[in-house]
Design goal:
Radius of gyration: 28 Å
Structural class: alpha+beta
Distance between the termini: 46 Å
CATH architecture of the largest domain: Roll
CATH topology of the largest domain: PH-domain like
Largest sheet: 7 strands, antiparallel
Number of domains: 3
Number of strands: 23
Helix content: 40-55%
CATH class of the largest domain: Mainly Beta
Number of helices: 14
Strand content: 25-35%
Length: about 475
């Protein structure tokens, strides 16, 4: 482990793919113009030459990239023309994640993603292709963590077990059926069609348009239903592939998550970096009594999906959340005692906040486009209903060293905040609030890349001041 090592040669494939993906958007307009001008041969020739150059550069990148573990440091040297040396101290490493996509699994390899403590992602490291054995060795060498600890008592060997929970296939099917993947896949289809429309011949496009126009209403309804069923099924498949055998295990100082069918991922979450625990319920999942559990992490980078939160369980029956927290995250608890609701005098503020603009729009439509007044009124009523449910959902509870805040935009979000994780706490009032004896509270925690503010509007002013005193004087 102390000798410089190269990545597996398969890393050339990953570098080639990554470089080609970065260049393809720039060459796409040129390719479209070349096809339209009848220069297809030169386009293919140019792509071939470009691929050869990319592959050659990838091979040089692989040959010039070395890594080694020396004492308490990971040292990396890389760069084709400009040599760069990077040293990462083992004591700064926060998490080491292993992941395997299809190519990794074909060759028995893994990707090692190393994240450090800090806000500069440039000091992090990623070994894109090492053998699975080498990846596990690096993980143990740099983290000193074993999945099972052995303790000797007399002549016996005692296996220390850790609490663990795995999502069931039934839960994954429900998660896929009620997830947001549906809209995401529709968006991808729309984007893909808009790009293909440019290169589709006009004659074919006109024939297809005429065929669609000539369809009966019944046939169009059947086609639309079939399309939506296919998209819905694809959303379920995406969830199954992403969270297959999702398992979370609690160790002394970290959470360990494994998941994935086609791409297997292993992720560690240091407990000291968890700033809050969240429980989210979409409208559909709330009807069936299911929730998603996530954590807010203090980190300098956003994950690959662009998500600001880290999922710790994709779907769970609401009744099981108490036992899940007690087993996996005992530092946090979901209060079972009566939660504090907002006073009735706060309701008008929520209605005005959500329905004021739709009301103005309805008045304008009534004067300039009276035929559309029904649509404007429906939007106004729906906005008022959303405001009412936002008021009904808003509540809080203070217990021991934890503050629970529940809010809603469309989906209900419960956040469990520990006192020592709060970065600030503010009580805000404007002149209407003072008149109605109300106030809004605003607290902040560290999160990925930036802080997250958690607000609860129109709380009774005495309760808001009590919460401020709790934050100021709690030790």
């Amino acid at each position: 482990m102390f000798e410089p090592k190269r990545l597996h040669p398969v890393s050339v494939i990953f570098t080639t793919i990554q470089t080609f993906k970065q260049l393809i958007l720039g060459f796409l307009p040129i390719a479209i113009l070349a096809i339209g001008d009848g220069m297809f041969f030169y386009l293919v020739l140019g792509i071939g030459v470009l691929l050869l150059l990319i592959v050659g550069f990838s091979v040089l990148t692989w040959m010039r990239y070395t890594y080694q573990v020396e004492e308490d440091q990971l040292r990396i040297e890389h760069g084709v023309f400009i040599r760069k040396k990077r040293t990462i101290s083992k004591h700064r490493i926060q998490s080491i994640d292993l992941s395997q996509n299809i190519i990794h699994r074909l060759f028995g390899l893994t990707k090692v993603q190393i994240e450090t403590a800090g806000s500069d992602h440039k000091i992090d490291a990623a070994l894109h292709a090492v053998t699975l054995q080498e990846g596990k060795k690096l993980h143990d060498q740099l983290k000193y963590k074993q999945t099972v600890e052995m303790q000797r008592t007399d002549d016996q060997v005692e296996v220390v077990s850790y609490p663990s929970k795995q999502v069931s296939t039934k839960e994954l099917l429900i998660a896929g059926s009620t997830s947001a993947s549906f809209g995401f896949i529709i968006g991808l289809f729309a984007l893909g069609f808009s790009e293909l429309e440019v290169i589709i011949p006009d004659s074919f496009y006109n024939q297809a348009s005429a065929w669609v126009v000539n369809l009966t209403i019944q046939a169009m309804i059947v086609m639309a239903l079939t399309f939506f069923i296919i998209i819905w099924a694809l959303g379920i498949l995406v969830t199954l592939f992403q969270y297959w055998k999702f398992t979370i295990t609690r160790y002394e100082k970290e959470l360990f998550i494994t998941r994935g069918l086609l791409e297997k991922k292993q992720m560690t979450i240091p407990l000291k970096r968890i700033q809050a625990v969240g429980i989210k319920e979409t409208i559909i999942r709330q009807l069936f009594g299911f929730s998603t559990v996530y954590v807010e992490i203090a980190s300098g980078d956003i994950n690959n999906s662009g998500d600001m939160k880290t999922l710790v369980f994709p779907l769970m029956n609401r009744k099981n959340i108490h036992s899940f927290l007690a087993e996996i995250l005992p530092e946090y608890h979901l209060p079972i005692e009566k939660q504090m609701k907002l006073p009735k005098r706060a309701l008008p503020y929520y209605l005005v906040r959500t329905a004021f603009i739709p009301l103005i729009a309805s008045i304008i439509v009534a004067f300039i486009a009276v035929d559309w007044i029904a649509v404007a009124l429906i939007v106004f009523i729906l906005s008022a209903v959303i405001g009412y449910f936002q008021y009904r959902s808003a509540r809080y509870q203070l217990s021991n060293h934890q503050l629970m805040i529940q809010t809603r935009v469309l989906n209900k979000d419960i956040l469990l905040l520990k006192h020592h994780r709060l970065q600030s706490f503010a009580v805000k009032q404007h002149f209407l609030h003072r008149r109605h004896n109300l106030a809004s509270i605003d607290t902040a925690i560290l999160s990925r890349l930036a802080g997250r503010h958690v607000m609860l509007n129109e709380v009774d002013v005495e309760s808001a001041l009590q919460l401020a005193d709790w934050y100021s004087y709690e030790k």
